[in-house]
Amino acid sequence: MTLFPIFSDLKNRPVLVVGGGEVAARKVQALLQAEALVTVGAPTLAPALRDAVAAGRIVHCPGRFDPAWLEQAWLVIAATDDRSANAEVYEAASTRRLFCNVVDDPALSSFQVPAIVDRSPLVIAISSSGVAPVLARRLRERLESLLDQSLGALAGLAARYRGQIRERHRELGARRRFYDWLLDGPVATALRRARPQEAEAALRQALSQAEARRPDAWCWSAPARATPGC
Length: 230
Fold this sequence. Notes:
Its EC number is 1.3.1.76. This protein is α/β, with parallel strands linked by helices. The chain has helices at 22-33, 47-54, 83-95, 133-146, 151-160, 162-168, 172-184, 186-192, 196-213; strands at residues 14-18, 37-42, 59-62, 75-78, 99-102, 115-119, 122-126, 218-221, 225-228. The chain starts with 13 loop residues before the first strand and ends with a strand.
């Protein structure tokens, strides 16, 4: 493994994109989905970027690259069609110890943007370390066809009930078996059929049944009669 895989939390963190064309626009769109604070530096902007500036979603620094643009950045992407300009961005970012991706140029990149399958909050990233991007794209396409869109809703539901699941199933083996049921049983089936309320009801019912079976959910009173729910 030549690259260390990492998912970055860019929410409310400044990111600089140098370049104003369609490639830059695609990168900006992905960054906005991650809730980054995006600044685009370029002499001119593609229509989608102009619209984003007008809507107040991004900031535009007009003109050629200025190293001063890097002052507040956490991350940098160079997406111009001029390799010498991209190299200038990369060198300036590296001097400041900022990770920089130059689109389609692994030699001038300190990080790479993988192909992704987005089933938020579940995200799968695929990288060929920059040596076979077509292969990474093919794998992404295959995974897109294999992984149902409902997986995102299933992951979100599991996240919302994670605390209750841990409380009801304190033993690790039992908790794993419950998650297997959650991923393969009626909850997942209901979500695939676009029935989120039915899915959540099934999960809540299963958790209630697990609570009733827990030994510490019973209080014992003399001489030997159990009263549930104490």
